[in-house]
Amino acid sequence: MVDVEKGVRRVTFDLPFGIDHVHCYFLRASSGGWILVDTGLGSRAPEARWRPVLAELDAPVERIVVTHMHPDHVGGAADAAGITGAPVLQGREDYAQCVKAWGARDPERFAAYWAEHGMPESHVQGLEQESDRLRSAIHWVRDPTLLDAGDEIDGWQVEVLRGHADGHIVLLRDGVLIAGDVILGGITPAIGLYPDSRPDPLGDYFETLDRIVELAPRVAYSGHKDPVTDPVGRAREIRAHHVSRLDHAAAVLGSRPLSAYEVSLSLFGAELSTTLRRFATAEALAHLERLVHESRADRVGSGYVVPA
Q1: What's the whole-model pTM score?
Q2: Using one digit for the tens of pLDDT, what is the confidence trace for 236-246?
């Protein structure tokens, strides 16, 4: 655990996939206690994970805030709540997505989605197996206190910044952005299209990047990598990155319909693990749908072509 600035402490947990860590944050409350933001993955031994962390605090955790429903952020929510006794707070839209994603298992629908977008059967089977393993580490909390844009938590302003996740929330106070995964240094947040999600996640994310420029925070403490010390500049860099990727995706298309999987091979290369290929296909799909919204591509069945 490290103090990143007065009243903001960061703890980092290991992750067993692509990116190997996640940051969670403790914010000093006006009462003298702490607000925990994000919780990592769920653990088979939550006492062993959380007790040493909590022992480094000088006061109890009074509230737990989840920025978004991805496994490495919501996964340990029930563990932390059970040990601290603190209530969990989560964005209203994000919680609805959490229920859809983790509340019911529908392997046939899951497999059909990826197969529809061109993923080979061998990859789909691998994704089903990985999904089953991951699900056991997602200890989310039912019926949390729901948050909306404009709410405040002990002086921290709640913003809904979509794209990486449909209902992703962040906290902002005195120029400090507790950012979850909406903005990252060194890597770009994954922007993918998944079952039941909003139809144009990249369009949503462009609005998020514009909002970060408008808010102009001094620093962003993110879920991965180092703090972002120039969030406005970084938001503009990430926008340029996605504009370039849109151009690349558009250049790949021709008159024969291409699946999102096929386009992902050009955007991200052929040598990826099963998990990373899922992210690559979902991200290719998000870019292709943005091209459709910009009238730079047409959808033909489940494939994409240059406009007629």
Answers
A1: 0.96
A2: 999 999 999 99
